[in-house]
């Protein structure tokens, strides 16, 4: 088959199926992988499809969801309840740290107190706060795109300058042995420093019921001085060991 005809067929398949792999095209046309890759590169340069790792996608294919976007849909109603309860705790004149994360993001939508100062390591949180007219500082450092958070040594140094009167944090897991855990070492360090620089008793962990009994990669805080805001009463072993507020 001539390359021009083959490329027409490849484009038809991509537009019909929205995405296709090099391996599948190689088998369909009974030709070499390098030939298919050259065809895809040519079509990509002509602006007819988008070359991706291992294949091609249609120009009108929906963009893949990020991990952050996927987390927004998990336990949505429960997170809204937790966020609303957290937002009501903010008082005038306070210096508030708001951690990157989905539940803390919902919290921003519930905030009413504009006489407080807000500090965050999330670009989207900072933007939302600014758009709503709040006084906000964004921590500087390295961007971790999957969680929309600022991490790294510069971010740690920046946070260490502050003494927060109240802080709101997300967590990936809560267990009696590993305490509060998260999946990324760099995020754990940011959380740890921010927790330590927040007044004991005002360190709020926003966690839906799925987090209890789970353990992630890195511990960022023990239970002392923290308060968990959650949507469902956990096992008694947690209730006896941690200050827990259950919202309805």
In whole angstroms, the N-to-C terminal distance is 66 Å
Q: Would you identify the regions where 5 or more consecutive residues have pLDDT less than 50?
A: none
Element-level helix/strand string: HEHHEEHHEHEHEEEHEEEHEEEHE
Count of helical stretches: 10
Q: Which strands sit side by side, in order, in the main sheet? A: 6-5-4-9-12-14-15
- Number of individual domains: 2
Estimate percent helicity: 25-40%
From the 3D structure, determine the CATH topology of the largest domain: Rossmann fold
Q: CATH class of the largest domain, please? A: Alpha Beta
* Morphology: elongated
From the helix content, strand content and strand pairing, which structural class follows? alpha/beta
Give the rounded overall mean pLDDT: 89
Largest sheet: 7 strands, parallel
What portion of the residues fall into strands of 2 or more residues? 15-25%
Annotation, overall tally of beta strands? 15
CATH architecture type of the largest domain: 3-Layer(aba) Sandwich
Give Rg in angstroms.
24 Å
What does this protein structure show overall?
The protein is built from 10 helices and 15 strands. With 248 residues, it is of the alpha/beta class. The strands form 4 sheets. The chain has a 7-stranded parallel β-sheet with strand order 6-5-4-9-12-14-15, with helices on both faces. Strands 1-3-2 form a 3-stranded antiparallel β-sheet. The relative contact order is 0.11. The mean pLDDT is 89.
């Amino acid at each position: 088959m001539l390359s021009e005809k083959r490329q027409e067929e490849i484009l038809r398949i991509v537009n019909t199926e929205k995405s296709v792999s090099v391996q599948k095209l190689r088998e369909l046309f009974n030709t070499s992988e390098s030939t298919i890759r050259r065809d895809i590169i040519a079509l990509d340069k002509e602006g007819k499809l988008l070359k991706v790792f291992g294949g091609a996608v249609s120009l009108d294919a929906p963009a893949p969801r990020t991990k952050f976007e996927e987390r927004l849909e998990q336990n949505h109603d429960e997170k809204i309840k937790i966020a609303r309860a957290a937002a009501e705790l903010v008082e005038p004149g306070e210096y508030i740290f708001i951690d990157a994360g989905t539940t803390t993001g919902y919290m921003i939508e519930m905030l009413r107190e504009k006489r407080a100062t807000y500090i965050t390591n999330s670009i989207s949180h900072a933007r939302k706060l600014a758009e709503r007219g709040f006084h906000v500082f964004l921590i500087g450092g390295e961007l971790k795109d999957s969680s929309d958070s600022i991490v790294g040594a510069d971010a740690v140094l920046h946070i260490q300058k502050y003494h927060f009167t109240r802080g709101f944090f997300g967590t990936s897991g809560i267990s009696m042995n590993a305490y509060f855990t998260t999946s990324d070492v760099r995020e754990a360090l940011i959380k740890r420093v921010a927790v330590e620089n927040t007044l004991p008793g005002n360190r709020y962990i926003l966690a839906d019921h799925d987090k209890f009994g789970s353990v992630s990669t890195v511990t960022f805080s023990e239970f002392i001085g923290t308060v968990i805001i959650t949507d469902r009463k956990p096992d008694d072993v947690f209730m006896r060991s941690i200050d827990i507020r259950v919202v309805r």
